[in-house]
Amino acid sequence: MLEFAVQFAFGAFGLALLFNVWRLIIGPETADRILALDTIYINSLALLLLLGLWHDTTSYFEAALLIAMLGFIGTVAAAKFLLRGDIIE
Amino acid sequence: MSKILPAPWLSLFLLVFWLLLQNSVSFGLIILGAVFAVLIPLYTHRARDFSIRVRKPLILVQYAVLLLIDIIISNFNIAAVILTPRRKIKPALFEYPLDITGEVPITMLASTISLTPGTISAELGRDGRSLLIHALNVHDVEAVKRQIKERYERRLQEIFQC
Amino acid sequence: MLQSLPTWADYLASALVIMGALFALIGSFGLLRLPDFMTRLHAPTKNTTLGVGGIILGSTLYFSVSSGLSLHELLIAIFLFLTAPISAHLLAKAGLHLEYKMIKETQDLRKKPEQYSDKDD
Fold first, then answer.
1. Predicted local confidence at residue A11, as pLDDT
2. Nearest CB to A13; choose among C21, C29, C32
3. Would you call C22 an interface residue with chain A, using a CB distance cutoff of 8 Å?
4. Helix, strand or coil, per DSSP, at residue B134
5. What is the pLDDT of residues A1-15, one digit of tens each?
6. Among A22, B19, C65, C110, which has the minimal tally of Cβ within 10 Å of its Cβ?
7. Interval B149-153 mean pLDDT
8. A38 in C contact zone (CB under 8 Å)
9. Is B108 in the same domain as B43?
10. Do B78 and C70 touch (CB under 8 A)?
11. In chain C, which residues have their Cβ closer than 8 Å to the Cβ of A9?
12. Residue A18: enclosing H or E segment and its boundaries?
């Protein structure tokens, strides 16, 4: 049962990543693209965790934690740049 | 006490975080974690420019459980909104007057609003006395305001006594 | 390869993983199809976070049952639940200050809309 569930989740997250990439391409605003990137990193983090589950190993955990942290910092930096970078200057 | 442990809750959090990160509990790990849990707050407490005093920890736990349940319910709501045709939705942008004061309680309230049913806190007003909230699908703005006030803000007020 | 679990753990972990995957899929779908930026912000911040939370709970359950208590994946969930509102807040702020177009059904009840805008200075 779990095998089927994990396969299903692989499919679902792959489709979700496709949706996100589509939003990343069509925009239309810069903030939309930042939001799409944010969602992409969260989804790929989940894919990494699923891969760890599939191979029955916990060694992907550190990578997932690092993606979570760096992705958050990246989103905040991009949003800050959008807020400050081209408005006040 | 306060010389060695300037922030006891932070120390406890750091110790638990360390043990979770190591994913095992042994005597040596606890000792090393305790050393970190004492040294890191000592080194960083000068940088904390806010003071946080939890007056009623029990209500904080109750608040966390309530929040978790609300997050799950809100997810079903949002899923329903996403899957219905787009003509139906009715977003709103409104100001929410704050009763609570202090940086930490307001931050917690704003995060709570962002995580729960169909609302996102977008901006703190210039005077710091109101939050600008964007809601995904509301028909009665006043009801949403009342709900936030009764469900979350009152509890936060009780927890932090502000 | 996956080890076999007791029946209850098998079904519970499967349910958590499937629910998480569905929520994440719906969140990403919402990101694609909602009409304007401020509404699009709602979908991924809530649904995708809970979706990943479901995956993490399922994976925690699997590892705990198959090979001893293992809770460290909860760290990722805690981290995501702490940071999701912050990035949502910053993006919403950016959207407001840049005055992105909102759909015309939006009820704008701000008393002084100009105090949230940086457009003209």
1. 92
2. C21
3. yes
4. strand
5. 888 888 999 999 999
6. A22
7. 81
8. yes
9. no
10. no
11. 17-18, 20-21, 55
12. helix A2-26
- Closest Cβ opposite residue C72 in set B20, B92, B121: B20
Report the chain B residue with the minimal C-alpha distance to residue C63.
B23
- Min Cα distance B29 → chain C (Å) is 15
The alpha-carbon gap from C53 to the nearest alpha carbon of chain A, in Å, equals 9
Closest CA relative to residue C82, chosen from B120, B108, B11 = B108
Beta carbons within 10 angstroms of residue A43's beta carbon: 26
Q: Domain check: are B94 and B152 in the same one? A: yes
> Which chain A residue lies closest to C39 (C-alpha atoms)?
A32
pLDDT of residue A15: 92
Residues B41 and B96 in one domain: no
The pLDDT of residue A88 is above 60: no
Q: How confident is the model at residue A87 (pLDDT cuts 50, 70, 90)?
A: very low
CB spacing of C31 vs A3 below 8 angstroms: no
For chain A, the structural domain boundaries read: 34-84
The sign of the torsion formed by the CA atoms of A71, A75, A78, A81 equals: negative
pLDDT beneath 70, residues of chain C = 1, 105, 109, 111-121
Give the sign of the dihedral formed by CA C8, CA C10, CA C15, CA C20: positive
Peptide bond into A28 cis (omega under 30): yes
Q: Let me know whether B90 and B156 are in one domain.
A: yes
Q: Identify which of B79, B125, B134 has the shortest CB distance to residue C38.
A: B134
> Cβ–Cβ of A83/C59 closer than 8 Å?
no
C92/chain B closest Cα distance in angstroms = 5
What's the CATH number where B135 sits?
3.30.70
Angstroms from C90 CA to nearest CA on chain A: 6
User: Are residues B122 and C85 in contact, defined by beta-carbon separation less than 8 angstroms?
Assistant: no
| pLDDT tens figures, B64-101 | 898 888 888 888 888 888 887 766 677 888 888 887 77
pLDDT in tens, B19-64: 888 877 888 888 998 898 888 888 887 777 666 677 777 888 888 8
Q: How far apart are CA C29 and CA C45, in angstroms?
A: 13
Q: Are residues B43 and B90 in the same domain?
A: no
| The pLDDT of residue C121 | 42
Indicate whether B93 and B34 sit together in one domain: no
Residue A89: which pLDDT band, with cuts at 50, 70 and 90?
very low
